[in-house]
Predict the structure.
Amino acid sequence: MSYDYIIVGAGTAGCVLANRLSANPDVSVLLLEAGGKDNYFWIKIPIGYLYTIGNPRTDWCYETEPEPGLNGRRIGYARGKVLGGCSSINAMIYMRGQRTDYDHWAELGNRGWSWNDVLPVFMRSEDYQHGAGTYHGAGGELRVEERRVNWEILDAWRIAAEQCGIPKIEEFNRGDNFGNSYFQMNQHNGVRCSASKAFLEPVKSRSNLTIITEAQVQRLKIAGKRATGVEVNIGRQAVETFQVNREILLAAGSIGSPQILQLSGIGPGVLLQSHGIEVIHALPGVGENLQDHLQVRSIYKVENTVTLNQRANSLIGKMAMGIEYLLFKTGPLTMPPSQLGAFAKSDPNQPSANIEWHVQPLSLDKFGDPLHSFNAITPSVCNLQPSSRGHVRIKSANPDVSPAITLNYLATDEDRAVAILGVRFTRRIMAAPALARFNPQEWKPGPELESDEDLARAAGDLGTTIFHPVGTCKMGNDPMAVVSDRLAVHGIEGLRVIDASIMPRITSGNTNAPTVMIAEKGAEFVHAAHGSG
């Protein structure tokens, strides 16, 4: 019941940590996952996200608080509930962000987090389809491959974007993402490459690594100002206590990590006291600084081409897609939700690309609903650097009660302006000559909406998450920082947070690859602190 390292959460970061720390045979590692095993059929099939997101078997099925910026709506907030965490249910897009993201972290005083510092870390764990090079690594655990299906309408959209000033580029992930390109993704020959498959499966038989699923941490044990262990409800049968010899590594994600800290008496004093929790260590930033990418999903009907709507709404089309996948591991069943991306400035005064499109050859009213009966595409645009900030706060001292998740989307004039400019930019692309033969007709938000006021309201109606929460245990040395630049919790010994919650500011793009990098660096810090590695 005593381990050198206890890792709380077997999501993306936890799987990386378990791999790296258990590589030292002289230490014992315990990996705790509140969800179940990742043996559900639909996890490995890329398009299976349609059946894993919103499924209580694989998703915590959180819901946000009512969002004023979304015209009072609550939205579903998926978080992985299996080994591999969100990497087992996400879009599989491999996106590092931009140089400016990490250089900004370093400018805040965080040593070793600039782009030049983190690029080699990204490359170390990568197994790139085309081999090693200046920007890519080969032979690592995390497979990165190109798409395995093509759509005529997406090829045309690339040309249209170029006609509107967004050039075609070979790939993203080189530091400056301005341009348009197809996304690279975490797949291996048409099968999802989750963090569990990449980092955990190859090492799960190590004798010094213990993995327990359905193990929900109730709280951390703190003696004085040192973390000494965890209380865990295993299989909802009994609460057991595990002692730690060296460090507890909290890797439960941007929702789970602040919740566990708050339940353990570490966080904003007034919040903890309001729920009858003794304040072990007042740390006001725990759960604050929540950031996410809000996408505004325009939908355009198209003609003279085939989209997934047409193929998926036909029995013959479904059979053809299934047969193609079974025989060749290609075709629409290998698709992430979005295959094509573009980065640009919402206005010329921006220092770098600050908006991104995720372009989908399909359409639906909302995630989980059936595809529309007509052919359509969805060019969603998001603000990469929102100024709005939200929070995660417990609603009860009971660990089974989900915390309140408040994003405060579109709370600032700046964010509303970027949303409006993003919709207008989308309209320019859809009206470009390259798309004329498809006769695109705006279905949502609707061509009748022209004023800034109309488009701001439409952004609130159509806006939804891309599931990129970060920042709730941010790294730094200011009064609201939770961890140091070595990811150690301020004021508590033997405790680190190592996951996406440590980002002081959100990265420009999908956040799974940065989380792998964060875990790699976190493992380095742990090794360095204890003279092992």
Summary: The longest helix spans residues 512-530. The chain is about 25% helix and 20% strand. The mean pLDDT is 96.
